């Protein structure tokens, strides 16, 4: 079943019947004959020691339609990389680990920086960008999925539902975004999406006026989800933010490069829980504090490219408008939680809203003070134009790390 959610911008697939995963996988195996499929797993080494990733690998072992799995490994020394090679060795698919902190990939990174093409800071965006480059260099996959490595409620049906719309040979979708309810342990989760992004989009519509871009973002049920699937050619042309604005940045690039008829979203899970980020009120470099700053900057940058002009007065107005919308939503979330037997701490919700409101101003100041900021990692099309053999050498470096001595 599908419909056109909210503003009728993108197709929305509801899994009303919850088809058995075996039936989905049987079809996906047939699709894979025409559209080979791969999976990107951006990971910190610490996630190999956590409770989620080993269970995720246990599920991926059973997935019959994946042609390759590419793991982006951050913050790992030599011994930890060797441990990771053993950790993922039970996967039957063609599996490669990008040791992003290893000497071979660091040398390529330095070369890119010399050409002014490197990522300015480490992070999930940089990790995903390098994995995308390897996928392009391997040529093994024409459909690529991506999901996080901290999903505590993972089962392989999530991946099957995510891949299905892009892999189906009769469908014309180039990109699919996953969504799910953010409920766990009797609580409403997803604070950044509920308490920041949703009221911020409404506030921006009020302050900046109706814009197709804002309607487009508002049509996604969960724009901050880390689960999506795409055709491999999408990876060549999009620019990926290096910071916490990854998800918003990717959606913005897709709106710029693709017809909205080629984009969809799909309900991929009945329950979803993962490692929760702390609010980090006192530390603007971490947790939801940093995330909210980067998301706000990503939205401001995109709106500026569409001709929206911002001033200090505009950001003060936006903060006040956002704050009113957010408080109204807290009231609605409280009632929703009560009706469904869930708990919601209104004091903590309002504290988060106060932090996010403050960060809207701070992000505005950063945006105005640094107009020369280069927030995106260049597209792989640009990299290949500047350094034509880099992908070939990246493939060789990854093969040596995974099969040779390190």
Number of strands: 13
Order of helical and strand elements: EEHEHHEHEHHEHEEEHHEHEHEHHHEHH
Largest sheet: 9 strands, mixed
Low-confidence stretches: 1-7
Give the percentage of residues in beta strands.
5-15%
Structural class estimated from helices and strands: alpha/beta
End-to-end Cα distance: 50 Å
**Number of DSSP helices?**
16
Give a structural overview:
By secondary structure, this protein is α/β, with parallel strands linked by helices. Helix content is 51%, strand content 14%. It contains 16 helices and 13 strands. It has helices at 21-31, 45-48, 53-60, 78-87, 103-114, 124-138, 156-167, 191-208, 212-218, 232-237, 246-257, 287-305, 312-339, 346-369, 380-386, 390-403; strands at residues 2-4, 11-13, 37-44, 66-74, 94-99, 143-146, 175-179, 183-184, 187-188, 228-231, 240-241, 263-267, 376-377. The strands form 3 sheets. The chain has a 9-stranded mixed sheet with strand order 1-2-12-7-10-6-3-4-5, with helices on both faces. A two-stranded antiparallel ribbon has the order 8-9. A two-stranded antiparallel sheet has the order 11-13. Helix 6 packs across helix 16 (390-403) and helix 8 (191-208) crosses helix 13. The radius of gyration is 21 Å and the shape is globular. The N and C termini lie far apart (50 Å). The model is unreliable at 1-7 (pLDDT under 50). GO terms for molecular function: transferase activity. It comes from Vreelandella nigrificans. This is Glycosyl transferase. Keywords: Transferase.
Quick overview:
With 406 residues, this protein is of the alpha/beta class. Helix content is 51%, strand content 14%. The protein has a 9-stranded mixed sheet with strand order 1-2-12-7-10-6-3-4-5, with helices on both faces. A two-stranded antiparallel sheet has the order 8-9.
């Amino acid at each position: 079943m599908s419909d056109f959610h909210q503003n009728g911008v993108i197709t929305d697939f509801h899994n009303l019947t919850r088809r058995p995963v075996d039936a989905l996988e049987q079809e996906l195996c047939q699709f894979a004959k025409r559209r080979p499929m791969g999976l990107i797993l951006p990971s910190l080494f610490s996630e190999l020691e956590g409770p989620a990733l080993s269970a995720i690998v246990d599920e991926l072992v059973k997935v019959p339609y994946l042609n390759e799995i590419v793991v982006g490994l951050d913050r790992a020394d030599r011994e930890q990389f060797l441990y990771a090679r053993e950790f993922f060795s039970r996967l039957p698919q063609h599996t490669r680990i990008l040791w992003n902190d290893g000497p071979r990939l660091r040398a390529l990174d330095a070369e890119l920086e010399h050409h002014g093409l490197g990522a300015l800071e480490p992070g999930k965006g940089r990790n995903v960008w390098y994995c995308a480059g390897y996928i392009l260099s391997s040529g093994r996959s024409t459909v690529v999925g991506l999901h996080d490595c901290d999903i505590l409620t993972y089962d392989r049906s999530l991946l099957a539902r995510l891949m299905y719309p892009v892999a189906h040979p009769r469908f014309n979708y180039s990109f699919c975004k996953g969504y799910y309810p953010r409920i766990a342990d009797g609580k409403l989760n997803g604070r950044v999406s509920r308490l920041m992004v949703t009221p911020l989009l409404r506030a921006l519509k009020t302050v900046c006026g109706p814009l197709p871009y804002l309607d487009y973002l508002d049509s996604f049920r969960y724009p901050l989800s880390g689960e999506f699937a795409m055709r491999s050619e999408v990876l060549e042309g999009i620019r990926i933010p290096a910071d916490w604005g990854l998800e918003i940045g990717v959606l913005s690039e897709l709106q710029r490069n693709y017809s909205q008829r080629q984009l969809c979203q799909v309900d991929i899970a009945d329950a979803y829980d993962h490692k929760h980020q702390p609010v980090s009120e006192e530390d603007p470099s971490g947790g939801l504090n940093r995330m909210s700053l980067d998301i706000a900057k990503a939205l401001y940058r995109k709106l500026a490219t569409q001709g929206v002009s911002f001033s200090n007065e505009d950001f003060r107005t936006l903060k006040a408008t956002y704050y009113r919308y957010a408080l109204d939503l807290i009231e609605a979330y409280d009632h929703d939680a009560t009706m469904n037997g869930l708990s919601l701490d209104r004091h903590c919700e309002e504290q988060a809203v106060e932090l996010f409101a403050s960060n809207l101003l701070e992000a505005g100041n950063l945006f105005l003070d640094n107009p020369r900021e280069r927030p995106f990692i260049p597209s792989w099309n640009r990299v290949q134009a500047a350094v034509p053999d880099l992908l070939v050498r990246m493939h060789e470096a990854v093969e040596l790390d995974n099969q040779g001595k390190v």
